[in-house]
């Protein structure tokens, strides 16, 4: 009798290769949209109802911080139950009685910096876990302080948490950001809601635009223009009003199944109701460039966001090249695409991806280190990776190094190695994808029948 292809023991997962992945997966709600729905709902007038909310650790951190400031939010994670946020209005957040703990969530901390900077007469302290306390916050804090007049203090000249925020009246202005980051842009737009005049954000290239779409839905005066829609202008004065939000499936979570099916012989996976926001679909473009057998069906719009159903089959793959213009559209999918490169015929190149060095981990270094443990030949550059495929991998002792996207990406490599692999720190996947390992086991079981 064949043993189970996947075994979970505490924070360790053992994976046996040799089975296809087959079935349908409803991926969890989009993490970026879930954060924003909570935050915008909190400062709106009236209730906001959120369907399909991601009940993972990062959005829970956002919800917990908002509750600590007097916002009533129903429990996250009820079986099919929507999350209801009782808005307190733009100036209704209370000074908390304790430090606000953002956990491992950079989105929570950066967006709260923008939101709280304008809460006049109140003081806030933001902290997080050991990883988050080493992530750069100056990219948000500096423009808030230097252009908008915010008062933010912390370690390393206000660039590292814990960070103290003295809420004050903010002014508007024009801000050119040094990186294309939706978190930075969103923090500045949130700060602009209570500013004395309009705020314009100009990015070096376009980042994901969930905040602009959702702010418009809530009633804010947001205008997008300029070359490649890189200029965003928010004019304060319009109150936000509670909305009914339907959160699509997270394409960053879907990416693991897209790559997994594409590189694992005999596989076919269908993914219904996945968000197809054009600022997020770089992974689809790359897989299609590689010759991946990918179909998109049933396209439609839900709550201002495009969605559709994806189906991917295994097939031969060619190489790809990712440069700085494409990175903002797939920055979270690069670890999974690095695995895809191992099984493609030719040399794949990733450059302009220095941002990966300041994620939950240094993802370029961690993926290189872990894939090399499997016998892979990976060249790590200053801002990317070079991988020539196809390569043969061997099962190995691996570690997520506490990074959720690393954990799930290593699983894809382990599925196609020779011999079993053990991934320590597999529980990190729960940061963005609770139930990932159970779902992987079900797909393997269906593929082995």
Query: Major sheet, described briefly?
Result: 4 strands, mixed
**Content of β-strand:** 15-25%
Share of helical residues: 25-40%
The number of domains is 2
The gross shape turns out to be globular
Q: Whole-Å distance between the termini?
A: 13 Å
Query: Mean of the pLDDT scores?
Result: 96
Summing up helix and strand content along with how strands pair, one would put the structural category as alpha/beta
State the CATH topology of the largest domain.
UDP-n-acetylglucosamine1-carboxyvinyl-transferase, Chain
Protein architecture, described:
The model has no long low-confidence stretch (mean pLDDT 96). This protein folds into 2 domains: 6-28 and 248-447, UDP-n-acetylglucosamine1-carboxyvinyl-transferase, Chain, CATH 3.65.10; 31-233, UDP-n-acetylglucosamine1-carboxyvinyl-transferase, Chain. It has helices at residues 31-42, 57-68, 106-117, 138-146, 155-158, 182-192, 210-218, 251-263, 282-289, 334-342, 363-373, 404-415, 436-447; strands at residues 6-9, 12-15, 22-24, 47-51, 72-73, 83-86, 100-101, 123-127, 151-154, 160-166, 173-176, 199-202, 221-225, 231-235, 244-246, 268-275, 293-302, 305-313, 321-322, 346-350, 378-381, 384-389, 397-399, 421-424. A 4-stranded mixed sheet has the order 1-2-24-23, with helices on one face. A 4-stranded mixed sheet has the order 3-16-18-17. With 449 residues, it is an alpha/beta fold. Helix content is 30%, strand content 25%. It is built from 13 helices and 24 strands. It is globular, with a radius of gyration of 21 Å.
